[in-house]
Amino acid sequence: MIELEKKELKAWALARSIFGANQIICEDAGRPNCFDPRTPFQNSIFLSSHGGLEFSYDSLEKLVGKGFSLPRMKSFFRSPILCFRSVFALLRINNLYGVTEPSFHQVQAIFRASVEATLAYANHHAEARGILMGERGSISFVIKELGELIRVGPRRGGLWEVLEASVDEKPAVILCFQNFQIAYLSALGQTNHLTDPVTGKFVLAGRIPLIEKFGFVSRLAFNDLPMPKR
After folding, report:
1. At which of 59, 77, 96 does a domain end?
2. 1: CB partners within 8 A, 6+ apart
3. Is 154 a member of any domain?
4. Half-sphere exposure (CA, 13 Å, Cβ side) for 101?
5. Checking phi first, is residue 105 left (phi over 0); if not, alpha (psi -120 to 50) or beta?
6. Number of H helices and number of E strands within the chain?
7. What CA–CA distance (Å, rounded) separates 196 from 80?
8. How many domains does the chain have?
């Protein structure tokens, strides 16, 4: 696994979060995801592996934090169709954060964005990698009476990623949210990992130290990255 410099890591985490949110939107709509960021970087990052929108690190942070930022204009000359598709996709993602009563799929998209940013830190941040090193088993995030939001865990080689749920493989630990409003707040970093389990906003079952370690990595990411404006 490659250890990234701070600016590269932030850009990679934001690009992966954009990919993650759009992946859920596209799966629900039955269309391919136009985002697929790739490394390495050269003081900028492409949101798609085949070109597409290219942002400087600062512009990408502004895009996520303020809802608007200009990509490098040469992007549109290289791959105009992909770029225009990507612009509309970014608008759809931005609109998710303005919803006052989100649906299950909208919460799932925002939660996936948050988790993808955490996974970027789990794989490319030195301290986070050290914390999760050697861990096995998956983590399942579910909403009570609605089902699984997402499952994550390490693959061969220790790379953490989103996993397909398997009936044959039980997760090592489950975090169950009381309702999807709490899951939504969690995805925005607005829950309290110390008091919320006590008040029943979410329940943990299984290997608790694993989810505590993942939660620590998630807070590392939240502290570093801009949050979309609501």
Report:
1. 96
2. 123, 124, 129, 157, 158, 159
3. yes
4. 0
5. alpha
6. 9, 7
7. 47
8. 2
Strands 202-206 and 173-177: antiparallel
- Return d(Cα 152, Cα 154) in angstroms, integer: 7
Residue 8 above 70 pLDDT?
yes
Phi-psi region of 87 (alpha: psi -120 to 50; beta: other; left: phi over 0): alpha
Q: Which residue has the higher pLDDT, 169 or 25?
A: 25
CB 148 within 8 A of CB 139: no
Burial 1-40 (b: 16+ CB within 10 A, else e): eeebeeebbbbbbbbbbbbbbbbbbbeeeeeebbbbbeee
Could you tell me if 15 and 75 lie in one domain? yes
Exposure on the CB side of residue 219, measured as CA atoms within 13 A: 12
In a domain? residue 176 = yes
Query: Comparing 214 with 230, which gets the higher pLDDT?
Result: 214
**pLDDT at residue 167 is higher than 60:** no
Domain match, 196 and 115 both: yes
- In this structure, the answer to whether residues 50 and 122 fall within a common structural domain is no
Domain CATH code at residue 161: 3.30.1050.10
Looking at residue 158, the DSSP 8-state letter turns out to be S
What confidence tens digit (pLDDT) does each residue in 169-208 have? Answer: 899 999 999 998 999 999 988 888 889 888 999 999 999 9
Residue 95 near residue 67 (C-beta atoms within 8 A): no
